[in-house]
Amino acid sequence: MRLALVMMGGGARAAYQAGALRALAELAAQAEPLRRAMPFTVICGTSAGAINATSIASHADHFQHGAARLVDVWAGLSADKVYRTDWPGIAAAGGRWLAALAFGWATFGLGARRTPRTLFDNAPLAHFLAATLDFHRIEQMLDARLLHALSVTALSYSSGRHLTFYQASEPIQAWRRAQRTARMVALTPAHLLASAAIPYVFPAVRLELDGHHEYFGDGSIRQIAPLSPAIHFGAERIVVIGASAPTPGAPAPEAPEVSVARPDIDVYPTLAQVGQQVLASVFLDALGADIERVEHVNRMVLQLPHTVEPESGWRHIEVLAIGPSERIELIAARHLQRLPRSVRMLLGAVGGNRASGAAFASYLLFEREFTQALIELGYRDTLAQREVLLSWLKTPTAAPAAAPTVAPAAPPDPPSGVVTAHPEAPRN
């Protein structure tokens, strides 16, 4: 069984994945006490999940050590390690951007250098990645066959194509779908910065592609099939860690914000409230929609006659989704004051420094009190899947000797939260 680990994006919300990985490492040690290497040989990440994926992949030879190190990084994080929080930095990026919204782009003239680009300057993250991640170890893990493939995704703002950049232990035929393709490259910090470039929040990154340069942004944008890369890499079982509930559902209704002066009149949504819905469509909706498609394809697979299924080329892919059991925006609302004053003031200009804009702020809340709360939540939610995960993490037994041909039994119902699908179904 080739196990895959898929980690979704979500900015600061990705701290949840560090806690989930800590629990996975503990369960792996219980399943195989003598095994130090990571059982996941295919690792795929998007946005902040790409950073986590690269970090854990570089420690494929010692899963527990890699998970503990990632927890330490997230538990000790602060916003100034990810984006500039000093007043000059805020004024140069966010202040100019907000001024453009208020007074028009013409106030900045026609010079490209003066045109505002994003809300924050994430130059500190570039330095942090270069100092924290060891990309040379990834090549070592691949050469030692402890890792089969590592991929990160990004969207080209220049061409509109969704790119999966990957390294692998052996040549893998790159796939091409409508506006989606893959490239085998030597991954660098620039690929991670591109994958994690939240639209309008962090700047796009210039990468070379097919002999020319294109600007890339967050890989969660237009990611209609998050599980596709892992399936193309030959995964038979996939653990996917998201930043929202693992299955789609109607959100809890919220009372609209009303004016204090005129309680009978609803207040128009702030930019932060609109922005958090946009970011939800970028980070949260794709996984739920993909799981819905997986479940639909699964029902179709189960309807195939057993005499036809082997000839169809379809095979079962089991997926176990792990997501927050609590609403992250409510956790974020309790920690908004932990953000630097300069950031709070900037967010206040778009309504992101109050409870109604907490979901928007949660993507930027890189402060230890918030990240530690998410780490603990991810740890608890993963242990809640203990029995299924232990069965997956145990080394598969050797295939039994050939037996007389008999009519195959109907496949058992998958455990709760597990779905199956074929790798070349239309969604991929």
Features:
single chain; 428 residues; alpha/beta; eleven-stranded mixed sheet; 16 helices; disordered C terminus
Low-pLDDT ranges: 246-262, 397-428
Mean pLDDT metric: 79
Radius of gyration: 22 Å
Distance between the termini: 20 Å
The percent of residues in helical segments reads 25-40%
Helix/strand/pairing category: alpha/beta
Count of helical stretches: 16
- Along the chain, the helix and strand elements come as EHEHHHHHEEEEHEEHEHHHEHHHHHE
Total strands: the figure is 11
Q: What does the overall shape look like?
A: globular
The proportion of residues in beta strands is 5-15%
Biggest sheet, in brief? 11 strands, mixed
Record the SSE blueprint.
Elements: E1 3-7, H1 15-31, E2 40-46, H2 48-57, H3 63-75, H4 87-103, H5 123-132, H6 135-143, E3 149-156, E4 162-168, E5 176-177, E6 180-184, H7 189-195, E7 205-209, E8 212-218, H8 228-232, E9 237-241, H9 271-283, H10 285-303, H11 309-312, E10 317-322, H12 328-333, H13 341-348, H14 358-362, H15 368-383, H16 386-393, E11 418-421
Parallel strand pairs: 1-2, 1-9, 2-3, 4-6, 9-10
Antiparallel strand pairs: 3-4, 3-8, 5-6, 7-8, 10-11
Written overview of the protein:
The chain has about 425 residues and is an alpha/beta fold. The chain has helices at about 15-30, 50-55, 65-75, 85-105, 125-130, 135-145, 190-195, 230, 270-285, 285-305, 310, 330-335, 340-350, 360, 370-385, 385-395; strands at about 5, 40-45, 150-155, 160-170, 175, 180-185, 205-210, 210-220, 235-240, 315-320, 420. Strands 1, 2, 3, 4, 5, 6, 7, 8, 9, 10 and 11 form an 11-stranded mixed β-sheet that branches. The longest helix is centred in the last third of the chain and has 19 residues, at about 285-305. It is globular, with a radius of gyration of 22 Å.
